[in-house]
Design a protein that fits this description.
By secondary structure, this protein is an alpha+beta fold. It has a single domain, classed as Peptide Deformylase, CATH 3.90.45. It has 3 helices and 9 strands; from the N terminus they run βαβββββββααβ. Strands 2-3-4-7-8 form a 5-stranded antiparallel beta sheet, sandwiched between helices. The protein has a two-stranded parallel sheet with strand order 1-9. The protein is globular. It starts with a strand and ends with a strand.
Length: about 180
């Protein structure tokens, strides 16, 4: 089922998400719905808060980006209760956008590599280093489960430039091409 994507201004986007319980019966269905929603919206990542669920869960699908970013060739998975354990000192700036902030893109500086810990939907535990664009997608979605959006990471002057766009999204003056929910 295609879920509505919550737009900037929805309180769930600013709340630190709760752990997914080990016995969460709806997990597989929610993950399937999130992947379907992500595909229709043409994104590469979607966090549970973006579909109104305050859970530490996100899905990623970077496979469409494999030509430009070979590390994304098989990067399609769900991350349950993820954590960032370590970050590289080397940082990289790249222009990011977000399904919850349609029409806005800004350069965001993030660590090039991150060591992550998470569970898959079958409850298997994983720990691995993510690099390049995989790392960026993971970090962007991780911000969502921490109650942050990518514009929180841009300079104060750039934030002033996008403030009007953010207000327009929150006031319903922006209409994305996918199913959405606003205040």
């Amino acid at each position: 089922m295609i879920l509505p994507i919550y737009l900037y201004g929805q309180p769930v986007l600013r709340k630190e998400a709760e752990e997914v319980p080990a016995d969460y019966a709806e997990l597989k269905q929610l993950v399937d719905d999130m992947f379907e929603t992500l595909t229709v919206a043409e994104g590469c990542g979607l966090a549970a808060p973006q579909v109104g669920k305050s859970l530490r869960l996100f899905v990623v699908d970077g496979t469409e980006l494999k030509e430009e970013y070979p590390e994304c060739a098989n990067f399609k998975q769900a991350f349950v209760n993820p954590e960032i354990l370590e970050e590289s000192e080397e940082k990289i700036a790249y222009s990011e956008g977000c399904l919850s902030l349609p029409g806005i893109s800004e350069n965001v500086v993030r660590p090039k590599r991150v060591l992550v810990h998470y569970y898959d939907i079958d409850g298997n535990e994983h720990e691995e280093w993510l690099e390049g664009f995989n790392s960026r997608i993971f970090q962007h979605e991780y911000d969502h489960i921490e109650g942050n959006v990518f514009t929180d990471r841009i300079s104060p002057i750039r934030r002033q430039f996008v403030k009007g766009k953010l207000v327009n999204i929150a006031k319903g003056k922006t209409t994305p091409k996918y199913r959405y929910k606003r205040n």
